[in-house]
Specification:
- The chain has about 280 residues and is an alpha+beta fold.
- It has two domains: about 1-30; about 30-280, no CATH class.
- It is built from five helices and eleven strands.
- The chain has helices at about 1-30, 85-95, 120-125, 140-155, 265-270, and strands spanning about 60, 65-70, 75-80, 95-100, 110-120, 160-165, 175, 185-190, 195-200, 215-220, 275-280.
- The strands form two sheets. The protein has a six-stranded antiparallel beta sheet. A five-stranded antiparallel beta sheet has the order 1-2-3-9-8.
Length: about 280
């Protein structure tokens, strides 16, 4: 019993240290990225962030994401990290949409947009809340292993990317293994933070580092989607049958079961989109 109490206290102290570090970093970093940035020489879109050294250009308080936008001579890259359990669930339920207006206007009209991750409604319904997944409960090793397995299942279920505005792409939903050169990968780190990387070929947007111009971009956490289960690229915001989403990080945001229920403040956060606009100019080598 004594060992269990000590173990619980150690786990609590570790979590407090992690949150304190995140809070301190968030106080020092910009709310939006303010510079152009060349991507690392060898970028591998695998969701592991090895080449990025877990370092980000901004932490946006509105969307609760750490992010970096960068480029090389072929691609525009977006890397995102979410450290908030509720925000992780929200992202899985609706994805993150990056909208790029190459005319420099902060408008979605005549812009390109890519949404990722896309998790199908069927896969979302299949998720189940791990044992002991309660905000006020320190989980035992079995529960932690179950949560890790659930996260692994989530990642393996992400197979699609939503795209809008690309004249060479007729479908609005494409495979992560597509012929257009758009690449995306999601993952969780050892602290159950949600990560993803995205690469969009510059040629698909008719932009080039040979003649870099400032463009406007929007990052939006879509919130949990109705009707289609996910698919955040739909600017018309369809409505239909509610879907069931559960947390897979042990954070206990809310439990699934068929229709949304309980936790009014949390539910409002999960359903509401958050976004911001900023501007970026391609970096030259």
């Amino acid at each position: 019993m004594r060992n269990k109490i000590i173990s619980s206290l150690q786990a609590t102290l570790t979590l407090l240290l992690i949150f304190a570090t995140i809070f301190t970093q968030a106080q020092k970093i910009n709310n939006i990225q303010t510079i152009s940035l060349l991507a690392p020489e060898k970028v591998k879109i695998d969701g592991k962030f090895n080449e990025w050294n877990d370092t980000f250009q901004a932490y946006n308080k509105t969307t609760k994401i750490w992010y970096t936008l960068s480029n090389d001579d072929k691609n525009l890259y977006l890397v995102v990290k979410s450290t908030d359990a509720i925000n992780n669930t929200k992202i899985l339920g609706g994805g993150v949409t990056i909208t790029i207006n190459t005319a420099g206007k902060k408008k979605e009209e005549n812009a390109y947009s890519v949404t990722f991750p896309i998790l199908s409604r069927a896969n979302m319904r299949g998720m189940r809340r791990p044992r002991g997944a309660d905000q006020n409960t320190i989980q035992d090793s079995a529960s932690l292993a179950e949560a890790a397995a659930a996260r692994k299942l989530v990642i393996s279920s992400i197979k699609e990317i939503s795209v809008i505005g690309f004249k060479d792409i007729t479908d609005t939903l494409i495979s992560i293994y597509n012929e257009y050169g758009i690449k995306a990968a999601a993952n969780y780190d050892q602290n159950a933070n949600l990560l993803f990387e995205l690469a969009i070929p510059l040629k698909l947007m008719n932009i080039s580092i040979d003649n870099p111009k400032e463009f406007a971009y929007n990052l939006k956490i879509n919130g949990i989607q109705y009707g289609r289960g996910n698919g955040g690229g739909d600017r018309n915001g369809g409505r239909g049958e509610p879907v069931s989403v559960v947390t897979t990080d042990g954070g206990g945001a809310f439990s699934g079961g068929g229709r949304f229920g309980g936790g009014g403040g949390i539910m409002e956060e999960l359903l509401s989109a958050t976004d911001f606009w900023a501007k970026y100019t391609l970096a030259k080598k």
